[in-house]
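Hi R.,

As promised, here are both runs. First protein below:
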Amino acid sequence: MTLPLDAASERLLHTVDALSDVDFAGPSLCDGWTRAHLVAHLALNAEALTGVLRGVRDGVPTTMYVSVEARDEDILALAPASPAELRERLRAAVAGFAEVADVATGLGPDVTFERTPGGRVSPVAAVPDFRRSEVEIHHADLDTGYTPADWPPDFALAVLTASAERYDGPGFHVVATDEPARWAFGSPAADAPTVSGPASALAWWSTGREAGSLLSSTNGSLPTLEGR
């Protein structure tokens, strides 16, 4: 059986394999990054999460990154590589992650890892979900035809649920027009605005990206998501 992350990774690899050398140099939807930067990040992210899982397996706790600065520097160092090198690095990183993904299965919430030394702490069991988010969201960020509308419905709903849980700004409601689902962002009062639209467009917007024309708000303007 193909797991959601495996399917998402295969879609991403197919897209990256189809990019021309010129495409790699073009802009992505991530500010200041070309598609090459984004592919470099996706490869390095897989390698970092693989390191976390190997550390758990081997009893040697490992952070994702040595530091935020090192993470950024590694992306900048890899991005100028040739498209062939970037494709191979991403493919190898995806395969390496798949080899250890089962390490996360069945772990309790007390088994955690740090993103950087002394930084954000997260449960190791959530690593496959973290990787799936990176793959799906940044696949759309490549801006090559794969959009949030192509996301599996369960992924869009999961993004919205996670975004609502993290949000701590002024309250508002969110209602999907294509799914029987709604969310409270913050602590909305009775007269708080309601944002509605397709779940995929809502999820994309909830990550801080451009809303497009598919969303509407009962008070005429979308919240700024400053509490995201």
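And here is the second one, sequence first, then its structure tokens:
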Amino acid sequence: MNIPAFDLKRATARLAEPVAARWAEQVAAGAFIGGAEVERFERAFAEYLEVGLGGAGCVGVANGTDALVVALRALGLEPGDEVIVPAFTFVATGAAVALAGGVPVFAEVEPDTLSLDVADAAARVTPRTVGVIGVHLYGRPYDTAALAELCRRRGLWQIEDAAQAQGARTGGRRVGTLGDLASWSFYPTKNLGAFGDAGAVTGNDPELLARVRRIANHGRTEHYLHAEVGTNSRLDALQATVLALRLTGLDEANRRRREIAGRYREALAEASAAGELELLRDPEGTEPVYHQFTLLTDRRDALKAHLAAAGIGSGIYYPIPLHRQPALERFVPAGLELPVAEAAARRALSLPMFPELEDGEVERVAAAAAGFFA
């Protein structure tokens, strides 16, 4: 594609020299797991999220799926406990519950945001329900306040799956600070991406974060003393170095993403008004970071082919909702239908979105997409 959906080479090229220099220092020191580089990133990310001031901060882990699993275990998930998750998201959100020994319960999403439908989630609470995972899908915050109120009333905990939302705000606060815990993925294509797999858990409860850190490090309380069965999920020093370097430019990169999204919205406004497509709503009081710019249309596959013919890449996130995934079918009640999630899987298409897109490329994408509906 002349204009790819995402170009990792552009995103990482400017980091080659500083990362190489820091890597040489790490090789000379023989410091690869934990240590100063990881501690430096954990402090910096906590301060960026504004949980470092009187809060518990950040624990680096190996990847985003581990972040969910470790967070679930730290919150005391027991075998058979139910956790409500949105049905339209990446498979890891539901699979992590199963990996941690729980039962994922699939809930509907809102048609105009594709975020968790809190009213539908409330209807799925049973005596076995212990918590809810909300997803800041495509870098657009979900209604954390409404979910917090549901959790308060029903005695549940809330995990923010913030894998796609580094830097997003809602109600003036950064996401990742609004639930009991938050999980992060720093997969290379994320707004804040590493040079490999990496993740983190953040929160405001020091005791809870201490348990996260312990579980992620074999349940260890001191050298060769293990208080519980943990796992090996640690952020390595090289990835921490990359993340610390990229964090300094995250706000500017997200500003550029919002600028690109604004141009796409402008170009597609007429087609949206005509009912040819739907543009997702950004809830009032939120500041999205557009990990993806996603539209909904009944002509999704034709639009994708049209863009490809023009040399423009696009992506489908996600073509199969969680309750239709074979890996999770044992958790699906007979006859479960979630029509909004199922329609989104048929209709969602994401246009090219990364901050290194040049203005001319943005204009080409905008013109090609709008032209399809003309």
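A quick note on the second one: The two ends are 23 Å apart (CA to CA). Let me know what you think.

Best,
J.
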